[in-house]
Amino acid sequence: MACVAVTWARPESTYTDKWDNINVDEILESNRLLKGYVDCLLGKGRCTPDGKALKETLPDALEHECVKCTGKQKSGADKVIRHLVNKRPDLWKELAVKYNPDNIYQARYKDKINAVKGSA
């Protein structure tokens, strides 16, 4: 989950910034909101428009190391990763199983993931 920022893919050089002003902290602080996004990403629940965009964009962002992410999306992704790794490892593991079944990204982002462990 290297780029868990709310984005929507398009052919230009970056993903749309349409959802760059979403309050990531509000989502992370609310079990209900966070669970809604995770359930959307896992295909277990309904998706909001921004959740749907994230679900569609996440595989590309992971594959290409978030190169099309805006600065705000990268910052939001870092915040989400830090939160999930340190405070919700159960959700982190579920997302990893879905989006990284062969551990390709776990190896690619190992240093980044280790760097955020313990830094909530």
Automatic annotation (TrEMBL):
InterPro entries named among the record's database cross-references: A10/PebIII, OS_D_A10/PebIII_sf
Question: What is the protein name for this chain?
Answer: Chemosensory protein 14 variant
Spell out the SUPFAM superfamilies in the cross-references: Chemosensory protein Csp2 (SSF100910)
Q: Which PANTHER family match?
A: CHEMOSENSORY PROTEIN-RELATED, EJACULATORY BULB-SPECIFIC PROTEIN 3-RELATED
Query: From which source organism is this entry?
Result: Bombyx mori
The family database entries (Pfam families) matched by this protein are listed as: OS-D
